[in-house]
Amino acid sequence: MSALLNVTEPNNSNDNDFLTSLTTDAAPSTDSKYSREQIAQLFDLPLMDLLLQAQTIHRQHFNANEVQISTLLSIKTGNCPEDCGYCSQSGHHRDTTKLQAEKRIEVDKVIAAAKRAKATGSSRFCMGAAWKHPSAKDMPYVVELVKEVKALGLETCMTLGMLDTDQAAQLADAGLDYYNHNLDTSRSYYEQVVSTRSYDERLDTITNVRNSGINVCSGNIVGMGESRDDRIDWVHELLKMPKAPESIPVNLLVPIQGTPIGDKVLAEGQLSVLEWIRTIAVTRICCPSSYVRLSAGRESLSDAEQALAFMAGANSFFYGDKLLTTGNASQSGDDRLMRELGLTKQFAAPRAPKLVPVMDAMSGHQSQVVLAS
């Protein structure tokens, strides 16, 4: 197809050339570094035009009707030292949210949950811990989880807070496929969300993950009271990275009573679902080779709204009735909707660990070898 849609009145401006070029066969095969002004143009498009642009680009990079499905498990819940204003797991809000903190889940229970996830069709198993960062005594535990889950044939993802270079290397050696560390919002709005961790510290962790060879999963939460300019700046921040994250969750805030941001949104009103879908579409256009995930907030969507989100270029979502501490759409409902939309599940493709155990047949000596990249 040469030009599916000319979304603007024809003239000779570079801006209109940019918009028109999005739906041509000559569209770039790798992520393009769009300017902030171009990202703002995309947000301003009529919604139907934007969705068509996003779906066209999506089909140039992915199988049109295939979705990646993940399951998320909280392996350590509550009493987090961070003060994120949206999160019930923050120890700063425990008196108002009344969330019951839990210690680390035993390894065998995590593996049992991973087996159930695989049996229901998930290709990736994500594990999250309410830490500012993992401690030295936590690392053997999380490394064991990565190895055990990978042995089931699942892709692995973890979100454990900040990582230094050594911690990232340990997870990479164990074979971790993805590490999640969301930017949450724009740099300018960030101070309205959290004060116990800086924006640059988040970017440092993402750099450490990227340099270790682990795929980056990094997204945002829309609907926290930020402006559209903040959503534009967040997309632009992704494009400032040497490479866009391989996985980008675009969350809609689930306002939790007792959290500062949750209480504010409950009092003032939630963000329009269509603005959320618009953000998904712009993310798909600007990061064409990334998985764009429907995450928190999906449980409130109608079937038609979810269909629009997939049209906007979302091709990943979470299975299961719970996301860490908030509700999620029912699995039976997801299966029904996928049948109605004609969507199929993507198969898992875990990467090999860098270190693999070997045994000398003569001596019985056990050691490890490093696999070539």
Can you tag this structure with a few keywords?
373 residues; alpha/beta; two-stranded antiparallel sheet; 13 helices; 14 strands; 38% helix; 16% strand; disordered N terminus
Structural class: alpha/beta
* Number of E-state strands: 14
Question: For the CA atoms, what is the radius of gyration?
Answer: 21 Å
From the N-terminal CA to the C-terminal CA, the straight-line distance is: 38 Å
- What fraction, in percent, of the residue positions are helical? 25-40%
Order of helices and strands: HHHEHHEHEHEHEEHEHHEHEEEHEEE
Which spans have pLDDT < 50 for at least 5 consecutive residues? 1-12, 25-29, 322-327
Largest sheet: 10 strands, parallel
Q: Bin the strand percentage.
A: 15-25%
Q: What's the short story on this structure?
A:
This protein is an alpha/beta fold. Helices cover 38% and strands 16% of the residues.
What does this structure look like?
The protein is α/β, with parallel strands linked by helices. Helices cover 38% and strands 16% of the residues. It has 13 helices and 14 strands. The protein has helices at residues 14-21, 36-44, 47-61, 94-97, 107-119, 139-151, 165-174, 199-212, 228-240, 260-268, 273-286, 303-311, 331-341, and strands at residues 66-76, 124-129, 155-159, 178-180, 215-217, 220-222, 247-252, 291-294, 316-319, 322-323, 326-327, 344-345, 355-359, 366-370. Strands 1, 2, 3, 4, 5, 6, 7, 8, 9 and 12 form a ten-stranded parallel sheet that branches. A two-stranded antiparallel ribbon has the order 10-11. Strands 13-14 form a two-stranded antiparallel ribbon. Helix 2 (36-44) crosses helix 9. It is globular and about 70 Å long. The two termini are 38 Å apart.
